[in-house]
Amino acid sequence: MAAIDGLPPLRDVIQRHGLDARKALGQNFLLDLNLTQKIARTAGPLEDATVIEVGPGPGGLTRAILSLGVRKLIAIERDSRCLPALAEISDHYPGRLEVIEGDALKVDFAELARQSGASGPIRIIANLPYNVGTQLLVNWLTADPWPPFYASMTLMFQREVGLRIVADETNDHYGRLGVLAGWRTEARMAFDVPPQAFTPPPKVTSTVVHLEPRENPIPCAIAALERVTQAAFGQRRKMLRQSVKSLGGETLLAKAGIDPQRRAETLSVEEFCRLANSL
Ligand code: SAM
């Protein structure tokens, strides 16, 4: 593979440190540094940015991010076997890479961002472990206060999850995730990554999703929005008068000005917010 930074090829790094991929940790590594640079570039300008990366593993994406001139990169990795390999990258880019060993689901990212003292934008970039990816995304989408601590998120998902994130009422993948992401961010699928780009290859195609927070999302309480989307999509084939019955049914729908005969999958984000605000 083309060298982007004078460090050894990732295949050698993995072999030298005995980093055989573990399924339980969602480990599917990217070894092509041109591809990892393409992912990092999708995040936007990195020169003044502080980047937070989840799950650096042997460091393919980490190296790409650093090679693009990022000021500071904070990486959170759960697998302690990866730390010596990451320390080599840190030595190569003195003072720019901080590695935190731990479970990203337990990290207070807003606090981490505060402590970093970053003056430029904070960008989240990750080839996420699939088993925790959606939960992390939901945590970041429900950040409080809003606008959040980050300027963008550039994340790898299984394609099917990516489709759900960017979906709206005009397509079949629309559901709770699409409402949440559409309400608070502008989300787009950047490009697909085939299974064979990973070691080992996963069963399905992956996709890189780029999300930027909206400055002024429609005012709406998250808890209320979650209640209405949970009820409505919990019975997505039913008419709303049935699916949101426990929340007030026809009275609630009349207050929100929404036809009780419609189904969840036909409601726009704006209409879901109206429903939530009528609770
Ligand atoms: N970024 C590397 C790449 O692109 O080749 C590795 C990506 S691999 C899909 C996911 C990485 O996340 C693994 O290194 C795994 O050990 C790490 N990981 C899994 N669960 C984690 C968690 N809860 N918190 C932090 N890292 C985690």
Structure notes:
Helix content is 38%, strand content 18%. It is α/β, with parallel strands linked by helices. It has a seven-stranded mixed sheet with strand order 4-3-2-5-6-9-7, with helices on both faces. Helix 2 (33-42) packs across helix 3 (60-67), helix 9 crosses helix 12 and helix 11 (249-256) packs across helix 12. The longest helix has 13 residues, at 222-234. The termini are far apart. It binds S-adenosylmethionine. S-adenosylmethionine is lined by residues 25-30, 54-57, 60-61, 76-79, 82, 103-105, 127, 129, 132.
Keywords for this entry:
alpha/beta, seven-stranded mixed beta sheet, two-stranded antiparallel ribbon, 38% helix, EC 2.1.1.182, rRNA processing
Quick recap of the structure?
Pfam families: RrnaAD. The chain has helices at 10-16, 33-42, 60-67, 83-92, 109-116, 130-141, 159-166, 176-184, 222-234, 240-243, 249-256, 269-277, and strands at 29-30, 50-54, 72-77, 97-101, 122-127, 152-158, 185-193, 198-199, 206-213.
Q: Provide the succession of SSEs.
A: HEHEHEHEHEHEHHEEEHHHH
> Largest sheet at a glance?
7 strands, mixed
Shape category: elongated
Unique ligands = S-adenosylmethionine
Radius of gyration: 21 Å
Number of strands: 9
Topology:
Blueprint: H1 10-16, E1 29-30, H2 33-42, E2 50-54, H3 60-67, E3 72-77, H4 83-92, E4 97-101, H5 109-116, E5 122-127, H6 130-141, E6 152-158, H7 159-166, H8 176-184, E7 185-193, E8 198-199, E9 206-213, H9 222-234, H10 240-243, H11 249-256, H12 269-277
Parallel strand pairs: 2-3, 2-5, 3-4, 5-6
Antiparallel strand pairs: 1-8, 6-9, 7-9
Helix pairs in contact: 2-3, 8-12, 9-12, 11-12
The protein binds S-adenosylmethionine.
Keywords: Cytoplasm, Methyltransferase, RNA-binding, rRNA processing, S-adenosyl-L-methionine, Transferase
Protein name: Ribosomal RNA small subunit methyltransferase A
GO molecular function: 16S rRNA (adenine(1518)-N(6)/adenine(1519)-N(6))-dimethyltransferase activity; RNA binding
